Amino acid sequence: MKIRNGIILLLLIVFVAACSGAAQTLTETPQPTATETATPTLPPPDQKTTPVPDVDDAVRTYLDAWKAEDYASMYAMLTQVSQDAISEEEFTQWYLDIATKGAIIGVDYEILSSLVQSTRSAQAAYRTTLQSVLVGDITRDTMMNLSLEEGEWRVQWADNLVIPELAGGNYFWMDRKIPSRANIYDKDGNVLVAYADAVSVGIVPGRMGDYEGQVLSEVQWLTGLKPDAVRLMYADFPAGVEWYLPLMAVPLEKVQQRYNVADGYDDRGLLMYPFSSRFYFDGGVAAQTIGYVSYIQAAEKDEYLRKGYQQDEKVGRQGIEAWGEPYLGGTRGGILYVINPNGDVVTQLADVPAEPSQEIYTTLDSGMQQAAETMMLKYRGAVVAMEVDTGRVIAMASSPDFDPNAFEPYNYNYSFQLDEIYDPYSSQPLLNRATQGQYPLGSVFKIITMAAGLESGLFTPQSTYDCQYSFTEIQGLSPRYDWTWDHFQKDGKTQPSGLLTLPEGLMRSCNPYFWHIGLDLFRQGYPDAVAEMARGFGLGNPTGIVGVDEEAGNIPTPETEVDAINNAIGQGDTLVTPLQVAQFIAAIGNGGTIYQPQLIEMIASPDSDPVFEFSPINKGLLPVSPENLAVIQNAMISVVENRRGTAQFVLGPYSRNSYAMAGKTGTAESGSGESHAWFAGYTRENRENIPDIAIVVIAENAGEGSEVAAPIFRGMVQQYFEGQRTYLLPWEDSVGVISVPEEPVVEP
After folding, report:
1. CA dist., res. 662 & res. 641, Å (int)
2. What is the pLDDT of residue 50?
3. Whole-angstrom Cα distance, residue 605 to residue 493?
4. Contact, 693 vs 720, CB < 8 A?
5. Segments of the chain scoring below 70 in pLDDT
6. Which pLDDT does position 15 carry in this prediction?
7. 353 in a domain, yes or no?
8. What is the pLDDT of residues 423-473, one digit of tens each?
9. Does residue 544 lie within any of the structural domains?
């Protein structure tokens, strides 16, 4: 028993000791001994995860590409399954079809919400707005599903991504409402262009025989073409051939007045073919300025469908017809339907009516325009006439011209006339030489050099110069010769002009005097004086005219003394357009105000207020003092009226006795062939009811301005004040009929 109790006591002691050791481990950190090894601590496990890309960014990128019509980038964002289901070509065409059929010109969007449904899929709600030129905005809410592929959100393509109504293979169809194209008029309301029934007129000279006189008389009644002018057209036809000569198209009502008579000459070579179309009266007045229309071409189809046009429409191609397209074509409307694959209407999305087109009234005077065109028949070149106090352009002729009716396929003459228009050896009849022709100005530029000299203070109206045949002021440069020397070489009589004041220098158009001015300004520290004056006169920059395309020309700053003398007489690299010259001549004529040339008098629908009415646009003043401008004006009067003036023999008596004028002749070296003939001037009648006008004439490679351009100027003045021209140009047999030189008789 004692032994058992001892054992129990011993166990208790051991248990207590063990508990004491355990308690110690909770409060003390045992220190390792030299023989103990510490247990290493393990780092926490790596729990990194790849973040899911932002869904909104992906949706935005896709929709931005749609706005930019970047269909390749859109297609690249599709899921692989979607790309397997639709090719890039089909995908692109699907979007293009929506744009063309709906006349969609823009897209906008708004992301409404997005939801990542799992780590592999997402959904976005967004609002699209399709901007249609025909029916306005179409706004719908729709959904986009996306899948995560290779760490990027890809779009699950579906046909509801544009608007929900297109789901299931549905498509747009537009019933387009097209207003009729509006007319174009001259300033007095005479119609220049309108839809009309017309007749193509032509002749077969080989069939006329003894009836030539009667046939040509009938042609004159129908077309206004004089018999002698028509004879010139077929003068080189071989005898015995029956070639067709297209003449022009005329209104049907004109033919109906004498149809029985005219039709009786059918077997005598007078042929007539009716057609109906947009018609350009009188063979196309101011053809390059008014322009023409032609059918939408296959390559343009999608572009114009999106603009709201029908595929079989005609559109403006040049001049006012092209510029005025938004007015002349009217505001189109339409009914937009959604159609299912069976061709049934699913729904009507919009219905917007068309609005009437707007007629354009030009500033052109038909009589002045046709007179200018007739007088330029012999030459390539241009005539511009403009009111000095307003900037109204009343004539803008470019020669050669063309008949805009040639672009109508139902016009029997069209193929013949188009061949002439596009003949590579023709003289570019589509070019508007009045605004796009760039020429050296020659001696007309001396007006600007005179202004620069006066404004510099180096020259005064009393400054004199001895104008001899030659100019030798630049050492090492071969002599330059005055125009008087050229005349002396021909007639053996013409003498140099001698001692001249500055105004007399302009009157005599003395080249050495103006070479001297250009050189002196260059040497005296004013190298850019002439160029800056030219720019101040509006040269070297577009005039700002609307309705036609124009070129800026070129006004160089001289770098050498040779440049300076060339520029001083409008040669070298100096280039101007006839319209620019008319602009500054008008400013001289009105006392210094530069008005922007304008061609549009009014734009209005027949039964509504005008959307545009003419108002003069003041561009500023010539950089010339009133005193110096008066000196220039008087010098230009002396060019015309002084017995030594270069234009006196053509214009002097007419200016003194009929209509007061001022101007400047110009003969500009062309670089090839004969010189260009210029005359630029203005009337100075100061009448209350008839505005004074500036007129500029250039005839390419025609010789001297006084012999060719000045007579045309005179004819324009008579037409303006009298409403007709009776004055014969030196090269005319009768008004509008060019003389044919008689062939010398060869003695047997």
Report:
1. 8
2. 62
3. 64
4. yes
5. 1-50, 741-748
6. 41
7. no
8. 988 899 999 999 999 999 999 999 999 999 999 999 999 999 999 999 999
9. yes
Give the per-residue pLDDT at 11: 40
Q: Of the candidates 103, 132, 165, which is a domain's last residue?
A: 165
Triad 700, 703, 706: Cα angle to 5°? 105
- Convert 14-26 to b/e letters by CB count within 10 Å (16 or more is b): eeeeeeeeeeeee
Tell me which residue of 503, 279, 529 sits closest to 404, measured CA to CA: 279
> How far apart are alpha carbons 404 and 293 in whole angstroms?
8
Under 8 Å between Cβ of 403 and 287: yes
**DSSP notation for 433-472:** TTTT--B--GGGGHHHHHHHHHHHTS--TT-EEEE-SEE-
How many other C-beta atoms lie within 10 A of the C-beta of residue 626?
Answer: 11
CATH of the domain at 454: 3.40.710.10
pLDDT score at 52: 82
Among residues 165, 197, 213, the one where a domain terminates is 165
- Helices 709-722 and 366-375, axial angle in degrees (round to 10): 160
Q: Do 443 and 678 form a contact (C-beta atoms < 8 A)?
A: yes
Element (H, E) at 563: helix 561-568
Q: Quick count: other Cβ atoms within 10 Å of Cβ 376?
A: 22
> How does pLDDT run across 537-555, given as a tens digit for each residue?
999 999 999 999 999 999 9
Q: How many CA atoms lie within 13 A of 621 on its CB side?
A: 7
* Number of domains present in the structure of the chain: 2
* Angle of CA points 54, 114, 347, to nearest 5°: 135
Evaluate whether residue 536 is within a structural domain. Answer: yes
Task: Give the CA diameter of the chain.
Answer: 184
The answer to whether the beta carbons of residues 137 and 293 sit under 8 Å apart is: no
Radius of gyration of the chain (CA): 41
218 in a domain, yes or no? Answer: no
How far apart, in whole angstroms, are the C-alpha atoms of residue 315 and residue 216?
Answer: 36
Q: Which domain holds residue 64?
A: 55-165
The answer to whether residues 263 and 222 touch, using CB atoms and an 8 Å cutoff, is no
Instruction: Classify the phi-psi angles of 44: left when phi > 0, otherwise alpha if psi is within -120 to 50, otherwise beta.
Output: beta
Contact 692/661 with Cβ under 8 angstroms? no
Distance CA 420, CA 425 (A): 9
300 touches 309 (CB < 8 A): no
Q: Is 345 left (phi over 0), alpha (psi -120 to 50) or beta?
A: beta
Given a contact cutoff of 8 angstroms between Cβ atoms, the answer to whether 679 and 667 are in contact is no
Q: Is the dihedral of CA 99, 103, 106, 112 positive or negative?
A: negative
Q: Nearest-CA neighbor of 101 among 347, 337, 341, 315? A: 337
Contacts of 65 (CB under 8 A, 6+ apart): 71, 73, 74, 77
Look at residues 352, 396, 330, 410 and name the one whose alpha carbon lies nearest to residue 600.
396
CA–CA distance from 508 to each of 86, 209, 389, 498, 655 (Å)?
Answer: 79, 55, 28, 10, 18
Q: How far apart are CA 714 and CA 533, in angstroms?
A: 29
Is residue 38 helix, strand or coil?
coil
Q: Is 0.85 topped by the overall pTM?
A: yes
Q: End-to-end distance of the chain based on CA atoms, in angstroms?
A: 184
pLDDT at 266: 85
In the structure encoding, which two tokens stand for residue 692, read together? 């004074």
Return d(Cα 409, Cα 725) in angstroms, integer.
Answer: 36
Q: What is the dihedral of CA 266, 268, 271, 272, to 10 degrees?
A: -40
At 554, list the tokens.
């070129």
SS3 69: coil
